[in-house]
Amino acid sequence: MMAIRTVDIGFPQLALAYALLIIPFGLLLWYRIPMLGRTALAVVRMTVQLLFVGVYLQFVFRANSPWLVAAWLVVMLVVADFSILRGSGLRLGRFLLPVLAGLLVGTIVPLFFFLGVILQQPNLLEAQYAIPIAGMILGNCLRTGIIGLRDFYSGIRTSEKAFLHSLGQGARLHEAVRPFYRNAVVAALAPSVAAIATIGLVALPGMMTGVIIGGANPMTAIKYQIAIMIAILVGITLTITLTIWLTLKPSFTAYGTLDHAIFAKNKPRGTRRARG
Amino acid sequence: MDDHAAIEIDALTVGFGGRAVLGGFSLRLGVGEKATLTGRSGSGKTTVLRCILGFVVPDAGAIRINGEALTARSVWHLRRELAYVAQEPELGDGTVRDVLERPFAYHANADLRDNLARVDEFFGEFLLPRSLLGDDVTTLSAGEKQRVAIVSAVLLDRRIILLDEASSALDKTSEKAIADFFRSRADLTVLSVSHNPEGLSFSGQLVELPGGPNGEEPEGSA
After folding, report:
1. Can you tell me whether residue A217 is helix, strand or coil?
2. DSSP state of B219
3. Using a CB-CB distance cutoff of 8 angstroms, which residues of chain B are in contact with residue A166?
4. What is residue A114's DSSP assignment?
């Protein structure tokens, strides 16, 4: 078989990539779309964050210490936790721990299954596998968590009379919120399910292209991609379910009514995109 | 008959955002009694009903249902004694049949499921056509929604019915059908809220809430 090698991108060539930004920035300027500042800031943030992560990951990969990998996973989880709460328009203080717990289980269960059972890695915190796979699962859990939590609580707030009607008919809290949970899961999972259904036809996903560019056989890349998509589906389903159920207690009074103090005063931020 | 009252309200005080809505309101309603709360907008009529359901927690005072104090713990089983019919009932989504069947999926009502066999009987009683069962609930008129909500309450075998302007959208014939039904049911305790107490002719006593500023009562939660 032909040997495939990865072509590195030099920093001067990388700088050239920024020249392409003239197209989106030009369109935003020409049509006076009020997103120029935000887009520019996003590009700067992306550059700084990825360069920082690149430097850090080089260090982590060289050291390959389970402690360093675990520390990095904790950082990723905490950042995702804050992002979900900011994005879903809920108050930070009340939900940091329940959302973190949902994210932790939603990420760790499929991650360790992927590493331990599918890849049969003796070390579940092997930096080369644990960090990128956790990142893909967590990125999708983040998006799902934002959509799911926002849809769930705003749905109850919007249809509060119907919710109270259920309570008045003798429903326990978990029974009264079930239709809202169902709607939230549909809203949260729909983009991922659509992505899974069209994968390979519409877009080549990040992991697959990464593995191919990294020099692996395309069939190996596809097997990785299938496994990671299943892991993502498991992760997002667990995350959306756990974050909703774990946030119930701090969100409702002892009488079962919605505590409106859970909503942050500022509008939630837009949903961020993350792909496997 | 039990010697305790179906509803006992003792010195109920409720305020929203610093505005007093109820100040020391008391009421005793024996089993099978029917009463109507009247008063100006903002006098706290709906708030009284919402307090009884545990949707609003009073600042002071006490509520007892069938002799049991309403608390965060007891509210969950006391709600099985109560039915609330709102002025504009939000019945959720689905068909009328879905709406009537849904509460029987709740654990608290599971043993009452056989009551669904009486849907036709109550639809006839409240002058609702049987064909309505397959209709989407969002297509119903306000008067139909009110009567469907009452049918649901009766199917759930609730003994204390709270009606919040529940006949406001009804024509005279439907209103009379509802009044006749409640008048004939000596086992049901009914506390209704109405701007027009003459409409609910089954009510044995009128309770006027004092004053209150004009304006909407807030959708306060517990």
Report:
1. coil
2. -
3. 92, 102-103, 106
4. I
pLDDT band at A1; cut points 50, 70, 90:
very low
Domain-by-domain residue ranges, chain A? 11-63, 65-262
pLDDT digits (tens, 9 = 90+) for A208-240: 777 777 777 888 888 888 999 999 999 999 999
Structure tokens at B28: 């005793």
Across chain A, mean pLDDT equals: 88
Angstroms from B133 CA to nearest CA on chain A = 19
More confident residue, B200 or A44: A44
Kindly tell me if the per-residue pLDDT of B204 is higher than 80. Answer: no
Q: Which residues of B touch A169 (CB under 8 A)?
A: 79, 83, 102-103, 106, 109, 152, 156
- Chain A positions touching B89 (Cβ under 8 A) are 165
Chain B residues 100-119 within an 8 A CB cutoff of chain A: 102-103, 105-109
Name the 3-class secondary structure at A216: coil
Whether residue A167 and residue B55 make contact (CB cut-off 8 A), yes or no, is: yes
Instruction: Please answer yes or no on whether A168 and B152 come within 8 Å at the CB atom.
Output: no
User: Rounded to whole angstroms, what are the CA distances from B33 to A137, B11, B45?
Assistant: 61, 20, 18
Ramachandran angles phi, psi of A175, nearest 5°: -80, -40
pLDDT score for A266: 61
Residue B215 in this model has a pLDDT that exceeds 50 = no
